[in-house]
Design goal:
Elements: E1 7-11, H1 16-21, H2 23-32, E2 37-42, H3 47-51, E3 58-61, H4 70-82, E4 87-90, H5 95-103, E5 111-114, E6 121-122, H6 133-143, E7 170-174, H7 188-200, E8 204-207, H8 214-223, E9 228-229, H9 236-245, E10 248-252, H10 255-262, E11 267-271, H11 277-280, E12 287-291, H12 300-307
Helix pairs in contact: 7-8, 7-12, 9-10
């Protein structure tokens, strides 16, 4: 049995798009610490998905204790201490994850890559918040001694999507997004018209989303005969599989679009004033960004032209 040379902790709690864009750093950390036992601390939604990668020996779920829940904080501190980590890569770099560094006091603390005060390997760039997520994390790891950081990749995902019975050609549509950020959504009526145009061309519109997106996806499905609604039916891995077989995808700036783009699917991502693609745009081999201050100003004709279906 090979004995790990050291224990490493990686912190990446979410959200979905950030998890996808951290896959390059995950791979870089594993390559740099070939013989280490590497543990990931993440949110509950990503535990099963990331367990299937070959980057981590163990995946821990973060309880995200409330600030007044001292028992939960004590349990977290005890767990971190018992991990005997030689180094921590904090890829979340939030107030919460930085707080985990200080939680380890009193006593010795591991080497720490992140933005926590007194970290041994700080990401010492005052303009880090002006960088794209991918570039920012690569620079953070460079400053911690990891020189080669690959692009985000989901090539490791192996899944069977035959249960959906989809036949090519089909296009994925992602009309949902954060309920509290309606300004990030292209109007449902525009998605409906676009879906109808796909059907007229012999292409099946396939609607992707979570339970919270059911109003948007259900509306498109109701007013577009020939659409296929897979709302809340797909795992993250199955979205990868569907993206690999799709002729293209159109969607708002939301988590599933990061999965779809990184899977290699020709992707058209729609942005309003509410988010900046220079900081968070989807990464993939064929990504087109369409941005208007107000997405109501973006026409169906423009989106159809950008997708470039043959």
């Amino acid at each position: 049995m090979t004995v790990p040379s050291e224990n490493i902790l990686v912190i990446k709690l979410g959200a979905l798009g950030d998890i996808v864009q951290a896959t390059g750093p995950f791979a870089a950390i594993r390559a740099h610490h070939k013989d280490a036992r590497i543990t990931l601390l993440t949110g509950p939604a990503y535990e099963g998905f990331l367990k299937d990668s070959n980057w981590f020996d163990e995946v821990w779920v973060d309880e995200r204790p409330g600030w007044k829940n001292w028992r939960a904080w004590f349990r977290l501190r005890r767990r971190l201490k018992r991990g005997e980590f030689a180094r921590v890569y904090d890829l979340q770099t939030s107030d919460r994850s930085s707080g985990y560094f200080h939680l380890l006091l009193p006593g010795s603390r591991p080497e720490w890559s992140g933005i926590a005060r007194f970290a041994s390997h700080p990401h010492a760039n005052k303009k880090r918040d002006d960088m794209h997520t991918v570039d920012r994390q690569a620079e953070q790891l460079n400053m911690a001694g990891i020189e080669v950081v690959p692009a985000p990749s989901l090539n490791w995902v192996n899944t069977d999507v035959s249960r959906f019975g989809l036949e090519a050609p089909y296009v994925l549509l992602v009309p949902g997004g954060s309920a509290h950020r309606p300004e990030k959504r292209w109007p449902v009526g525009s998605y409906t018209e676009f879906a109808r145009r796909l059907v007229a061309r012999g292409v099946t519109p396939v609607l992707i989303g979570a339970d919270a997106d059911a109003h948007a996806t259900g509306t498109v499905d109701s007013f577009c005969e020939g659409a296929r609604d897979l709302t809340a039916e797909t795992s993250f891995a199955e979205i990868v599989g569907l993206a690999r077989g799709a002729a293209g995808a159109v969607g708002n700036d939301t988590g599933p679009m990061h999965i779809i783009a990184t899977s290699g699917c020709p992707t058209v991502a729609l942005y309003s004033f509410a988010s900046d693609p220079a900081l968070c745009a989807q990464k993939g081999s064929d990504v087109t960004i369409l941005r208007r201050d107000l997405l109501t100003e973006l026409s169906v004709d423009e989106v159809e032209a950008a997708l470039k279906l043959h």
